């Protein structure tokens, strides 16, 4: 987007000076903006004919925060905290006129103002915690003083915004403007308050709370905050607002902010913020390429995946025709979709009429020909190449010209599938992750012949259904599952050499993963991919599956489970492991946690390097996005390739070589050049 000539302009409306920011796309508070506002405030102070000031933004939003691209670069004055301070200390009333999203530093600018007026659709929030930070321009000190300690904890600790209507109830907003008359209403408001003295400043208020409030908040969110540094820093700062005078509170906030800003967690989370946005861009394809319209979607298969995938489109208001082979499977599938929606409604996250609206967009059928008018058809049938080829062969005859044909395969060759049609340019992979209506990741698999506009349309559709999409090339398991393989393989080998499932899982959970490889197996089903022949026992998994240890669903897998699904180590499993180890001649030994990291996580990085070398991912940050949004890699470690940069490529190479792994040339190159992936 082109920058306007001057990002800050001023206008006079009688004795009111209006400072206007126009810094697309989101009015981030970069140096030019800060300098301009500062100048405007000084201009008002120096001019006796000005009685009050309004600060507002052009474009789609009020300031969406500090300019994150400036972080880590040499600071340019005025720094945001100083600017907020100079607004607050202005001897002429300053009014913030808010539309869109007043986020982070933007919210803090509004808090520095003496009055806040907002359109009802505006949102207020301090999402810094999601970047591993805290509102460092006085937000942690002013929010509790104006909106109460409880709300300040929610806003800063969790980072989710609140609507202007709620902000008004909390005292954060003084007045709601008409949706289309913000500027006029703000100027009128300024006229009303221009002579009011003393000028109301948030710094003059006090924040009080019972001491238990903080502990209760910590406890209630312990699971969500596990491993993260920023939530605790936010809590401590809000607590400081209740104990320290304002100026000392600001000092405390500054110290905590600086610690976070120069720590690795925030660097990782900022990396992911930009990585997620970069992932949407396809190298070599013009961003303005004409897209194919997607007005109607066809879904083949009403099982868990098909149903979940359909829900994404229904929720986005896009009609879906869903096909099954048998009536009972169709009824079961549509029944589950309804049940899922009703469960969401029961939790208050959807209105009953929205459930009906979504269900009204669903057309169940047993007839594949009913997909003839669909713009995008997604296949989610049994994971078998012959079955997929047959389906695509049929689709080729049914689908209208230009329809996009997608497979939800998680590892099969898209080019081979595409070759069973006469239109391989219209074919690609859309690999959703289970549960498909919940998981944010979508791997968009680009076949050798996939047309540019087909790929670009798929990326656009992904955004419409609120997925984070990453382009992957055709290879076994694409990006995510391909990297999972060495991890699973090594985890099994480690069992034979003396590690236990709980030791390996603990290392992964301590690292920040939601669960370890064996906990994941038990959740997904130990029998997944099993050949279903109880007499053929080739590995530990076969042995467990053969005796019904299928995981949580049968009450036992790698672990034993009680009625509440609490796991405990199993003597039966240990015996199976020991028997296999004895048969293979492996000598058992003490396995260190370090070795588990080297063999299960360094091997993933190694595979990631191969993926980059083979150009199966566009960039290292795309791999990070896959692992954050598809597999629960802790966001504060920035994804496997970002983490590799933190560990250092040379350390990873040494770790891999120690255990005899073949190291990817790209990884070796990085190690030799002390280079980074990101
Ligand atoms: C902070 O304020 C610290 C202070 O407390 C203390 C300082 C001392 N800076 O998301 P979109 C870019 S920390 C720079 O696709 P949407 C973004 O990269 C900040 N760039 O749009 C993208 O670029 P591109 C606290 C930014 O409509 C383009 O804008 N604030 C910033 O889906 C469009 O973004 C936040 O954390 C930024 N602050 O969503 C808010 N924000 O086109 C972060 C965006 O090249 N921002 N960009 O890919 C957001 O949450 C969303 O962008 C927003 C719009 C909801 C505003």
From TrEMBL:
Matches recorded under InterPro entries: 3-OHacyl-CoA_DH_NAD-bd, 3HC_DH_C, 6-PGluconate_DH-like_C_sf, ClpP/crotonase-like_dom_sf, Enoyl-CoA_hyd/isom_CS, Enoyl-CoA_hydra/iso, NAD(P)-bd_dom_sf
Keyword Isomerase set for record: yes
Any Pfam family matching the protein: ECH_1
Asked if the keyword Isomerase belongs to this entry, the reply reads yes
Domain spans labelled 3-hydroxyacyl-CoA dehydrogenase C-terminal: 477-561
Pathway(s) of this molecule: Lipid metabolism; fatty acid beta-oxidation
Q: Which PROSITE patterns match?
A: ENOYL_COA_HYDRATASE
* Subunit architecture: Monomer.
Similarity remark: Belongs to the enoyl-CoA hydratase/isomerase family.
Protein name per its UniProtKB record = 3-hydroxyacyl-CoA dehydrogenase
Q: Which source organism?
A: Sphingomonas cavernae
């Amino acid at each position: 987007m082109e920058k306007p000539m001057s990002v800050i302009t001023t206008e006079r409306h009688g004795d009111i000076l209006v400072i206007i920011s126009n810094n697309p796309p989101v009015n981030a508070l970069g140096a030019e903006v800060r300098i301009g506002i500062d100048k405007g405030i000084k201009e008002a102070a120096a001019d006796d004919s000005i009685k009050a000031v309004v600060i507002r933004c052009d474009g789609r939003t009020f300031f969406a925060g500090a300019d994150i691209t400036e972080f880590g670069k040499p600071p340019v004055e005025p720094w945001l905290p100083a600017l907020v301070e100079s607004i607050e200390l202005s001897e002429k009333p300053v009014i913030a006129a808010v539309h869109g999203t007043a986020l982070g530093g933007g919210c803090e600018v509004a808090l520095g103002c003496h009055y806040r007026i907002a359109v009802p659709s505006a949102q207020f929030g301090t999402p810094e915690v999601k970047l591993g930070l805290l509102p460092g321009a006085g937000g942690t000190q002013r929010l509790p003083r104006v909106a109460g300690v409880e709300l300040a904890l929610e806003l800063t600790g969790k980072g989710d915004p609140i609507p202007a209507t709620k902000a008004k109830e909390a005292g954060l907003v003084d007045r709601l403007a008409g949706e289309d008359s913000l500027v006029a209403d703000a100027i009128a408001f300024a006229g009303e308050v221009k002579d009011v003295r003393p000028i109301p400043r948030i710094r003059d208020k006090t924040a009080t709370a019972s001491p238990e409030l903080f502990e209760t908040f910590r406890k209630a969110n312990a699971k969500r905050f596990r491993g993260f540094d920023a939530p605790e820093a936010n809590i401590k700062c809000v607590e400081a607002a209740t104990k320290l005078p304002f100026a000392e509170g600001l000092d405390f906030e500054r110290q905590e902010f600086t610690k976070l800003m120069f720590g690795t967690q925030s660097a990782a989370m900022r990396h992911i913020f930009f990585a997620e946005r970069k992932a949407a861009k396809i190298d070599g394809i013009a961003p303005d390429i004409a897209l194919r319209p997607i007005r109607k979607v066809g879904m083949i298969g009403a099982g868990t995946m098909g149903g979940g995938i359909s829900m994404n489109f229904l929720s986005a208001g896009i009609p879906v025709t869903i096909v099954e082979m048998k009536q009972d499977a169709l009824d079961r599938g549509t029944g589950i979709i309804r049940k899922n929606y009703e469960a969401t409604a029961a939790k208050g996250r959807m209105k009953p009429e929205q459930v009906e609206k979504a269900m009204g967009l669903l057309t169940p059928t047993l007839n594949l020909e009913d997909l003839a008018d669909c713009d995008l058809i997604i296949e989610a049938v049994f994971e078998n190449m012959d079955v997929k080829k047959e389906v695509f062969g049929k689709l080729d005859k049914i689908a209208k010209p230009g329809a996009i044909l997608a497979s939800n395969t998680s590892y099969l060759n898209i080019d081979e599938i595409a070759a069973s049609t006469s239109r391989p340019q219209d074919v690609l992979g859309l690999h959703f992750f289970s549960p498909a209506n919940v998981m944010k990741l979508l791997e968009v698999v680009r076949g050798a012949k996939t047309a540019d506009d087909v790929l670009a349309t798929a990326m656009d559709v992904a955004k419409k259904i609120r997925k984070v999409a990453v382009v992957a090339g055709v290879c076994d398991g694409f990006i995510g599952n391909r990297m999972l393989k060495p991890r699973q393989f090594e985890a099994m080998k480690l069992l034979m050499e003396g590690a236990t499932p709980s030791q390996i899982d603990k290392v992964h959970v301590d690292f920040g993963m939601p669960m370890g490889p064996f906990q994941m197996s038990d959740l997904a089903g130990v029998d997944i991919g099993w050949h279903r022949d109880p007499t053929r026992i080739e590995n530990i998994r076969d042995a467990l599956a053969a005796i019904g240890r299928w995981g949580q669903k049968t009450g036992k897998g790698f672990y034993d489970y009680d009625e509440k699904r609490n796991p405990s180590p199993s003597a039966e499993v240990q015996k199976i492991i020991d028997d296999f180890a004895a048969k293979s001649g492996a000598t058992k030994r003490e396995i260190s946690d370090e070795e588990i990291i080297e063999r299960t996580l360094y091997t993933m990085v190694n595979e990631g390097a191969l993926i980059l070398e083979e150009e199966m991912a566009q960039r290292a940050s795309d791999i990070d996005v896959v692992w954050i949004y598809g597999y629960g890699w802790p966001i504060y470690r920035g994804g496997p390739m970002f983490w590799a940069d933190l560990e250092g490529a040379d350390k990873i190479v040494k770790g891999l070589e120690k255990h005899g792994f073949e190291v990817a040339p790209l990884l070796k190159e990085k190690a030799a050049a002390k280079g980074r992936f990101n």
